[in-house]
Amino acid sequence: MARKKLYRPIAAMAKKIREYRALKNRPRDSQRFALDYETMIRPFTNKRLPVLAWEDVRNENRLFTLLCQLRLFGIGRMVTRKHWLWQYDEPCYWVVTKVRVDYTAETLDHGKAWGYLTFRGKTYNEVKEIDKVIYHDWRMVPKHEEEAFKKFTPVSVETIQCTPYPPLLRAMILAQKQKEGKINTEEPLIDLETIISFTKDYFQNKKKPKGTPV
Fold first, then answer.
1. pTM above 0.85?
2. HEC sequence for 111-151
3. What does the pLDDT look like over 155-165, one tens digit per residue?
4. Cα separation of 163 and 188, whole Å?
């Protein structure tokens, strides 16, 4: 018979105290992501940034570097990212709704932010945490340009309904039709709109034809 595990309140309390101390003493983002802009080395990890990121680090800003300069830390303002502007024609931006600033940072340029995301013209109605706030590619959309930035005319995309079979499978299908005496010059195509689901019973009930190689 298994031995009943005893509840040890003092040990449980000591475990909670250790977890609380570990949580309290964990390094903050302002310590982890601090950067020496001359050497491009993070003092906390003693690692150098990739060379490809140096130009953005020198010329672009982190999200909280922009928000800390605004009233109410930019709540209600629209922010976007440089690589979104370069990569997509559709508007991509965040509307900031909530900010939690790390007040231990010397210039208040670290923290967490939440907002509504619009990605490639599609707006999500759920408030999400803004990710990659420490990246040096954030840009503030000026207030007088926000309406023009939001304008978007969706482009109709043609959906592909059929696609040709792979060469080997196409040759097998044509050989099977020729064996059955079906003379058909139509090219076999895969219908992408048809949804086919195979159950376990389908494979169990399917019998192998005689004379075929295993």
1. no
2. EEEEEEEEECCEECCCCEECCCCCCCCEEECCHHHHHHHHC
3. 666 677 788 88
4. 9
